[in-house]
Amino acid sequence: MYKVECWIENAVHSLDHLFTYGSSVPIERGIRCYVPFGKSRRMAFVDHSEEYDGTLESLSQKLGYPVKEIQQILDEEPLLNQELYDLALWLKEKTLSTTIACFQVMMTNKKRVKGKVKSVVLEQIIEIADESFSLSVKQAQCLRYVQEHTPISYIELRKKYPSIVKTLLNKGVFIKKAQERLSFLQAEQEVQPLKVLNQEQTKAYQLIQRKEGVHLLYGQTGSGKTEVYLHLAKKAIEEGKQVLILVPEIGLTPQMVNRVSRVFGQDLGMYHSGLNEQERYEQYQLVKQGRLKVIVGTRSAVFLPFQKLGLIVLDEEHDSSYKQDVQPSYHCRDVAVERAGFHHCPLVLGSATPSLESYAKALKGVYQMVSLKTRFGQDMAKVHVVDMSQEIRQGKDYILSDELKQRLTEVLRKKEQAILLLNKRGYSRLLRCKSCQEVLTCPHCDLALSYHADCQKMKCHSCGYEMKVLRRCPHCGSEHGFSGYGFGTQRLCEEVQKEFPKSRILRMDFDNTQRKNAHRKILESFGNHKADILVGTQMVAKGLDFPNVTLVGVLNADDGLQRSDYRSGEHTFDLLMQAAGRSGRGEKKGTVIFQVYNPTHFAIRFAIEQDYESFFKQEMVYRHLAKYPPYTSFVSFTFEGRKEEKVREIAENFQQEIAKICFSLGVAALLKKQDLYRYRIVVKEKYLENLLKKIRVFLEVTTVELQGMKIDVNPLYLE
Length: 719
Ligand code: ADP
Ligand code: ZN
Ligand code: ZN
Description:
This protein has 719 residues and is an alpha/beta fold.
């Protein structure tokens, strides 16, 4: 008999340990099975099994509880290899989640621990059975083609050699086999050579290539970071290794994807949420078999089952989409560091505005600092700032300043292009009753409803609730209507169109990019100069490279500073720097205009001067004084529920208990969201490791009800 130790599927911390079962056969680590648990059965993940010299009864007696037998084994081979298995156990310590949650985040849906195991799609492939037959010229050609393109699908081969395939099958040269369908997503194309690196790039390349460990490649947009990644990747592949290139959002980095695919052709795979389940599964298998050499992917690609990694790149490493805020609340950068360590390969963090954490580590020498100082093409565009409170005092337009209008006129006259960024979608921010002045709010959240002119609806940007515009005010019953306050991208488009009736305007925001490929179509049109002006939310600030854009205008550029969050300065600065980098990327010189209400805030001032280092210094002073990250580490616990009293009580009990073991900032009430009342407790301590250790012990023994609690380790937002 075999004694099997496994992790059980469930969500509570107190049950997150190994359970013992009996089995007549040994079971390998990483295989899933069904086990009896209480009155039902559960999925379990095997940790290990060992031979036991005795019966189930004697084992039960020895352990002091009834040991049951495993009901069913679900996999033929382990789903996770040893590296990923260990990574899951590491991840659970870092994120305070349950073991099973970590296994799940590493697998594609088809192999999730929970729920049904989905079937895989099969296809017919052709294999060579016997090459010794004598063949006609054409038949020999077909055979050679198969030799060169193995494994090849039957359908694909039949398209090329319609009748010959059948003949060769009948002859016994080929045989047909059913295999899991794994199609390459990249079309075959001409592979282009790389550019020759300049001196500075060559130095960066050599510094990184020589050494495993973490490198911060710090250089403004256009300094040639991507070109360095490509050279490093090529080298790694030549050494027979795989490469992972992580990007914040695939849809917003089409140019990066194009460049990589032009260099690596069919060796390239992609992994992101825009793929359907089958496509994701195929990419997963191809990585596992080592058939894809380079993967460009978003956050979750960091868990792909690479055989042998030679390089990891994390582009735009400061981007907040690398952090997952639900359990396991991991940061992709931390996982990348861990994997690069396992594979003894370099990890390159690239950015023009590194996160404070990474830059501080590079200054201390924990990461190697590699900087690129010169820029290809033009110097950075010049930034002009317009103080909107002045404009309004002078009775001028509160949407488009005179200076922005004048520059837009010039751009249109010269047939160049402009990007306008306004980080607010919809038409107006809120609607107020003309009689009682009450603001219309979402019935499910504590938030104002925004007016959307295109569909004549009011929408909640938090939960997605929408309703037709009301005739009567729900507060006072008046039918005198509502006035809109503040403006979003839809209103901006309308204003620009009014001012420049002949201009062609495209909009890109959450509302019109939900369908597959929507991003790509908008960006393609703009790239082909089918429009003069692109208006959009923060998504137009990321990574785009349009040489004909010579003007970028940011409206309400200091809006982000209004958030009460401790990172609001950093995020505002990043956004403005990114936006500024979109202007003047080609031959022509670019201009940038920030319209602000608070031109003296240091995040705005340093963004105008495009001075990351000064921003870093000042922001670090503030973080140090306030004892905020990176000087301390936070863990947040959020409780939510429909009954306000009950949630608050649980949160307060929790606060009392946890405050005994670490420093707590107390209970904070968050805005209601989707009918859920929410309370949050944040604890902090200088060293994360200590904090995590204490909390883990606490979670295992506490009697406070933790059902529905969300834990976020190093949360990026505290709102
Ligand atoms: P970053 O990733 O830092 O924004 P890129 O790698 O995209 O910079 O480089 C900016 C521009 O300069 C691109 O158009 C790129 O093709 C060009 N470029 C980069 N390196 C070289 C080089 N060594 N020789 C010629 N052109 C280069
Ligand atoms: Zn009213
Ligand atoms: Zn809502």
